[in-house]
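Researcher: I'd like a candidate sequence for this fold, 189 residues long. If you have to choose between options at a position, lean toward the conservative one.
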């Protein structure tokens, strides 16, 4: 419950309630109080408005302020939920780095920087690992966990070892493309 009290200047009389409003929860009350304390609403103006036009004018203003606060809070919760969802999405990027280096990176959707990266001198080396990794999308999150626990170099060795094992198996089955990128035409298992 929130009350607006008025006491004439210089009077020693008891303040009089000219407007009163109940709220379903504390968030609505806090939104209105924050607007008054933040200077968005002038308490003197609200008192004069109520005395001239009655409490209905202030009721509409309070309802609009509370509705705006509820909408703002819902947007903030949705944005936080989106950030949490984006943190669980990991993508693979093949990029050109500085000084002619070629990068292969795992990056969370919620981040602007790669969580894991490997650098190669030649693009063909990067593309060879990329041919295998693009079919491992469901394992990207586990790869990042492995890198966090054992280090980036350990993850790089593990990925290259698994790629070589897959290349040997695919070649043995006769499904490899041959050349420097045997998994180029491979579509995963």
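Model: Candidate sequence:
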């Amino acid at each position: 419950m929130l009350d607006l009290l008025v006491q004439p200047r210089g009077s020693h009389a008891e303040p009089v309630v000219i407007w009163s409003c109940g709220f379903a929860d504390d968030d609505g009350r806090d939104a209105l109080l924050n607007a008054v304390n933040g200077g968005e609403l002038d308490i003197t103006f609200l008192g004069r408005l109520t005395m001239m036009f009655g409490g209905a004018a202030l009721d509409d203003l309070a309802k609009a302020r509370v509705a705006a606060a509820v909408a703002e809070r819902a947007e903030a919760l949705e944005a936080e939920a989106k950030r949490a969802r984006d943190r669980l999405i990991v993508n693979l990027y093949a990029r050109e780095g500085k000084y002619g280096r070629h990068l292969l990176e795992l990056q969370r959707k919620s981040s602007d920087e790669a969580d894991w990266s490997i650098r190669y001198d030649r693009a063909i080396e990067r593309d060879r690992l990329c041919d295998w990794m693009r079919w491992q999308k469901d394992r990207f999150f586990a790869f990042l966990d492995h890198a966090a626990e054992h280090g980036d170099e350990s993850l790089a060795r593990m990925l290259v070892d698994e790629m070589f094992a897959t290349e040997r198996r695919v070649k043995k089955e006769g499904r490899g493309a041959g050349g420097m990128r045997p998994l180029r035409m491979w579509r995963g298992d």
